[in-house]
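Consider one such protein record:
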Amino acid sequence: MATVTFEPGGTTVDVHEGENLLRAAIAADVQITASCGGDGTCGKCRMLVEHGSVESRPSSRLTDEDAEKGYVLACLSAVRGDVRVTVPAESRPSHAPAPGSGNRRVPNALLSAEEHVARVPHDPSEPPVTARVLSLTAPDLANNCSDLARVRHALRREYGINDAAISLETLRALPDVARAKGWTVTAIMAEPGDATPAICGLRPGDTSDRQFAIAVDVGTTTIEAALIDLFASETMGQSAEYSDQIALGEDVITRVIAGSTAEGLEDLRRRAVTTIGRITERLCAEHGVSHDEITSYVAAGNTVMTHLLLGISPANIRTAPYVPVAATFPWTNAVESGLPGGPGTQLVTLPCPASWLGGDIVAGVLAAGIPWSDKLTLFVDIGTNGEIVLGSKDWLAACSCSAGPAFEGRGITHGMRAAEGAVELVRVDTETLEPMLLTIGSAKPLGICGSGLVDCISELFLCGALNRDGTFQRHDGSRIRERERGAEYVLVWAEESGTGSDIVINETDIENLMRAKAAIHAGIDVLLETVDVEPDAIEEVVVAGGFGHYLDIERVMTLGMLPELPAERFQFIGNGSLFGARLAAKSRGLLARAQRVADMMTYVELSVNASFMDMYVSSLFLPHTDLHRFPRTEALYSQRATIRTVG
């Protein structure tokens, strides 16, 4: 860790070595003019390095004389050890020191893959679908048993597998494959652990060092996939895009309605498969992997998305008593489903404990390490649906609420998913309402993703620009303006954006986000009430969702989405569904653990809970109808109000 000190004011922040200097300033609540997203083109985030060193990229916005004096652009500079910098007056929107001082911490960063997987105990078991090389004995007149008998004998001799089923298609291919490479074959084996192993496909020769899996998060709005090298047990890359199913409805209910006919169901299944296939093709091309080398797809999705992916009707999930067709699903041939693959490639889906609680949450709970933890943990997955789990290794209670697509960028005027160019961090100057912002990839701003939206609305509230009902209060600055559809805040001017148009947040966007956060907060309240637990008893909060690289928990609590607890109790793990699917794809032991997680969950149905609607309505304010439930936000709001009055 390194300590960055900002002058004037002496505010300090602890950051990781190599952290971006502008991101450190945002974490410390030091106001700086910065509007280009972090690509260095606006040249407004000048700082003078007084002590220590930073690694700074050159910029045409700084003269040689500036550089010699020690000036850098914060957005192009990385912290290298402890450093003290001065923010000159021209770089501060209100030309005043940041309010307060003292040591602060960085926003909650997305855990790296290594840190994330470290939360889960190591499981040495092999993948649920694996490539096993077999050395068969060539037949002769003294040993003329069948080809299949030779395969089964080799499985027993080399791997201790005493019995194995085989498909008719694989059996038809066996004689040619066995003789193609001198009686050496690679068998694609499906080994669920609780059922008879199956030979799903055969490859000629020894290709066991070329076996790959595709882990998939089948989201309602976004589908994300990762390519995994099973031989090396490492993730090679991942990619995401909006689901083709969106054309038939943005939320789960409209998808259920669309899938209630045979034609609609097949259309939705095909759209999901097509999206996954495109992502797979892209990942394979980028990393030099052939379709034939994919042994499995391991998919995690909510119950409706899982049904639709497999072409199973979700019609009865929509109406009481909300019954799915199944909670666990058979493994299927991926190629026959329309996915890229080779002989024996399997499609495996994680179990779905209830109609509105799916494999994505089972995967997230697994990835968060909760099944091994003694801590009372609150797990919240924030997406189109908000799923909430409370418990530990001994018990789990869960509920689900409809949050809408706001957190994933849809339904927001300039919203976008967490991709390069998305605004993910925002701070707003108390006096001028000038923003400083960072985008994913430090690119020119193209739109705003979930974490940026949370930041911006929380900041506008703390600055007094928003009333507690989410409407704009101040209209005396150039950033807030009236339009035909109501007031809006200009986050990025057209000349500074990557689209050539203003990027704005309007009152409809704010209303959409407030409804989403209210649903999640009310769901948490109901779950706590159901198990008779006070918020203070929660020892850890794990937040999952397709945000950017950072989520500032303080701003999330300011919004009123999560209980106000000490910041150190929070952890943000990004796409928990995809991480859990990755774990299950690499280990049949962890796949079995996912089933035990599903079996442990007690589901609380919010639609029949008498308290839910009252709690939801109470949460439709910033941060809540009862401001005293958020004492730190109340104090910060009062502090900012004092600064505005003095200013």
